[in-house]
Write a structure and sequence with these properties.
Blueprint lengths: L3 E5 L4 H13 L4 E8 L7 H7 L4 H22 L4 E7 L2 H9 L4 E5 L5 H7 L2 H8 L4 E4 L1
Helix pairs in contact: 1-3, 4-6
Amino acid sequence: MIERVLVAMDDSEMGEKALRYALEAHPDAEVTVLHVVGEPSPMMGQAVGLALEDDVQAAAEELAAAVLDRAREIADEYDAEVETKVGWGTPAKVIVSRAADFDTVVIGSHSGSLADQLFVGNVAQKVFRRSPVPVTTVR
């Protein structure tokens, strides 16, 4: 039985679909939404900017606020509550490192531009291959 679900959510349509799927498929489970900030980019912009902050956690939470607010709005549509978490670093690594605390992971099948996917790699694919628990990818 699925009791704890980790939903990896970014600011994409696929991220929102992943959360909606988790809330519909596992209505009685505890759902935690994780947003990872500071991912690498071709110019290392956000990752470098975050690393230079005095309080990295506070800066990460500020960058994640809009995504996590949207997650709570979606949960409200389902009359559900979600716990929200912020991670920083490489998205796939952060998601996989936290996956063991859950029964399953739900993630959107892709996000970002084609250039981002080519440079950073497909996060969903990496999570699917490395996760210690089952992963559902949502399209």
